[in-house]
Design brief:
single chain; alpha/beta; Rossmann fold; 2 domains; 6-stranded mixed beta sheet; 9 helices; 25% strand; globular
């Protein structure tokens, strides 16, 4: 058992859940001392590490801010390419680490939403029936959401509707080779874990399958593919895909 799991189990036994939640930053600061070093660096909290925490699924967790590789990649992309002043941003089910950064990012209007109640959220929007006006947002972040949604085509249509012409939606899901695998008859959480990799997933996309499905709903789609060394400095995934789904500008209004 890893040192992280030993410490986590010890804290659960010794510290009441509510107290742990109220003092999470302090507890993570204590945990960080066991991982502090110079070999790696988290892109979100900028803490330097001797190593990342390796979870059971192989994901590299930052001991200080709790970020996962996909959070760290997303933040790098947002800072370098996509964030600018006067953006109206909608973020589905954000991680705590990214919620904290984007909530105070200068010059943008940031809103988050989560229907499950498990994530930091200003709103509780159903992605298949988004209660927001047409063409409201410049940037939508939809990371690891669509694989949970049975009516994903309705969700894509709604994302397109609320996006401003010229706006973009950043999308990521788990992927497999071949074609999309889905079966609406599979309802049991244990069966879904076997078939789709997680108890609350309803499909596994392929890269080409998701691209085609987004294009069917009107998006222009650019697929960004990243390849990293296994022991890269920021603890990113060795292979990762990020979809940049854009809504075309209304030429009649811009001419």
């Amino acid at each position: 058992m890893s040192m992280y799991l030993v410490l986590k189990q010890y804290m659960k036994r010794m510290i009441p859940e509510k107290m742990a939640a109220n003092n999470e930053k302090l507890l993570r600061g204590i945990l960080y001392r066991f991982y502090k070093g110079k070999k790696y660096e988290c892109t979100i909290c900028n803490r330097k590490l001797r190593r990342f925490i390796i979870l059971d699924n192989g994901e590299k967790l930052c001991p200080y801010c709790g970020s996962l590789p996909r959070n760290r990649r997303l933040w790098l992309l947002l800072k370098s390419e996509f964030l600018r002043e006067h953006l109206f941003v909608l973020h589905f089910s954000p991680s705590k680490s990214l919620f904290g950064l984007l909530s105070i990012y200068p010059g943008i209007i940031y809103e988050s939403t989560d229907i499950s109640g498990d994530f930091m959220a200003h709103k509780h929007l159903d992605i298949t029936r988004i209660d927001e006006p047409d063409s409201k947002y410049d940037l939508i972040i939809c990371y690891h959401i669509l694989e949970h949604v049975e009516k994903d085509k309705e969700a894509m249509s709604e994302l397109y509707r609320i996006l401003k012409p010229g706006g973009i939606c950043m999308i990521q899901t788990p992927f497999k080779k071949g074609s999309i695998y889905e079966n609406s008859a599979i309802k049991n959480p244990n069966d879904r874990k076997i078939h789709f990799g997680q108890e609350d997933h309803v499909r596994i996309y392929s890269v080409n399958g998701l691209k085609f499905r987004l294009e069917q709903n009107g998006f222009d789609v650019k697929v960004m593919h990243f390849s990293e060394d296994e022991h890269n400095y920021h603890g990113l995934k060795p292979q990762e895909y990020v979809f940049i789904a854009s809504r075309k500008k209304d030429l009649a209004k811009t001419e």
